[in-house]
Amino acid sequence: MPSNDTPSTARRRLMQGAAAGLMTGVAAHAFGQASGPEATGTADAAGLADPRGLHPHPPFPAQQQPWPGLAGRMVPRPDHGETSYVGTGRLTGRRALITGGDSGIGRAAAIAFAREGADVAIVYLPAEEPDAREVVQIIRAAGRQAVALPGDIRSETFCEALVASAVQQMRGLDILVNNAGRQHSHDSILDISTEDFDWTLRTNLYAMFWITKAAIPHMPPGAAIINTASVNAYDPSENLLDYALTKAGIANFTKGLAKQMVKRGIRVNAVAPGPFWTALQVSGGQTMENLTHFGERVPLGRPGQPAEIAPLYVQLASTQASYVTGQVFGASGGAGQP
Ligand code: NAD
Ligand code: MG
């Protein structure tokens, strides 16, 4: 989203230069940084990295794809952790189902889960087969079972069938990630048709309800449900009226369901991302103006890459988080959330 050329914007531009190796010691001194900007851009041998210099910064090239969009056609391509995520066996032997696991945040979670030792089933739309195939290959390369479940979750019948198929093929279910989402920008409520409204609510709320209901009877004590909410749950964007209300609903559903699921020993949490560079944003999710300046308004001055949020999903799925339920965790590049 555009912002005025404030000192912080000017500083971000310089930090971009730092990432490209253009920063001079003089400029670093001008910022009064304890650790020089020349240290940004990549992680050192110990994995330490300055988050300001990592990953692409706006402006981004104007681009538009037909919905639902493919990560493989985005410029720059999102980083889902394909080359960077290293597991440490935190989910060994678990069986995970992730909706929207072909691209974006769901794909990053799928890669991380597989490298942590889980078998992973991904749900996606048939039009996303090229993205899904890549994810299936990555899961298999990690030595885990991959299950591909193409279909449209706006159908209750498909939601029930996808859970049954995942349970049957993986011989159980320990982790459910309700992550698939519909986001379509409309400048005014007057432009949102009943069909649009229904599309958003079916994808983001009804499908979560149907899939969760079908999954719970198969999930043992110790299992985890993780829903993807959004900063829009707290601070609705004016162009995402219908979407934002579903995200508030997801956060609320998470907290209520968590109370019920204590009786079954199942933990329920949500992740609320800020701006992340994903296919949803280039396939109607943002105005072109917002897209080219995507992430500019948060303090870090750039969007997150899906790889940067996957560890939250791993943590919430892991038994290490055994006291964590009914919570919503944010990752917004410094933009405040409750
Ligand atoms: P994405 O487009 O990569 O993932 C969304 C996925 O939803 C798609 O890949 C698609 O497989 C799935 N989907 C949508 N409609 C479907 C349908 N009818 N049937 C089956 N699958 C369907 O984008 P993303 O940003 O990774 O989105 C993942 C989640 O993150 C969404 O819930 C989104 O609302 C949420 N989120 C994203 C951002 C962001 O800035 N990217 C911010 C906050 C929340
Ligand atoms: Mg996709």
UniProtKB/TrEMBL annotation:
Origin: domain of life: Bacteria
InterPro entries: NAD(P)-bd_dom_sf (IPR036291), SDR_fam (IPR002347), TAT_signal (IPR006311)
Pfam family, any one: adh_short_C2
Keywords: Oxidoreductase
UniProt-annotated stretches for the region Disordered: 34-59
Coiled coil: none
GO molecular function: oxidoreductase activity, acting on CH-OH group of donors
PROSITE patterns registered for this protein in UniProt: TAT (PS51318)
Transmembrane segments: none
Compositionally biased tracts (Low complexity): 39-50
Homology family: Belongs to the short-chain dehydrogenases/reductases (SDR) family.
Protein name: Uncharacterized oxidoreductase YghA
Organism name: Paraburkholderia fynbosensis
Gene it is expressed from: yghA
